[in-house]
Amino acid sequence: MGGSHRTARAPGRPRPSTTRAEDPDLLRVGYPLPGLGRLAHRSTGPHAPPAQDRLDLVLGPVRAALLRHARRRPSVSEAAGRAHVTVSTATHHCDRLARSGLLRRLRHGREVRLCLTDDGAALLDLPA
Asked: Is residue 30 classed as helix, strand or coil in its secondary structure?
């Protein structure tokens, strides 16, 4: 990219930049995005999430995690903790999994336990 480079500065803010392209009718405008560098490096850093498998890609990572944890018949709050989501979020996703026939919720006193249906277990047993 050839051409001139200008920056405008607002006090206390990152500098947006403009760049003239080789075509005199084109002007490129760029804005810095604070925090984007941390986000970009997060995927390759020491706490990077594991690579997604097919179940994650089809169901989404939260529903896939909840379904996997259902093998142990956890409470909804235990499953939420393992999936790193709030109990209300886990409940929402468990509703969808139950409606799709992959999961059942069993009430034991004040606690709701998750268990796989035969279809849910068959889905988990598919080769990755």
From this structure: strand
Dihedral sign of CA atoms 86, 91, 92, 96 in order: positive
Q: Of 30-39, 42-51, 66-75, 114-123, which range is least confident?
A: 42-51
Rounded-to-integer distance, Cα 120 and Cα 71, Å: 9
pTM of the model: 0.59
| 39, 41, 44, 79 from 47: Cα distances, Å | 12, 10, 8, 21
Q: What is the pLDDT of residue 22?
A: 74
User: Do 102 and 64 contact (CB within 8 A), yes or no?
Assistant: no
Give which of 62, 43, 58 is closest to 128, Cα–Cα.
Answer: 58
- At residue 39, what are phi and psi to the nearest 5 degrees? -65, -45
Residue with tokens 């084109």: 26
Measured over the CA atoms of residue 94, residue 85, residue 56 and residue 120, the dihedral's sign is negative
Q: How far apart are CA 70 and CA 121, in angstroms?
A: 9
Residue with tokens 């989404």: 60
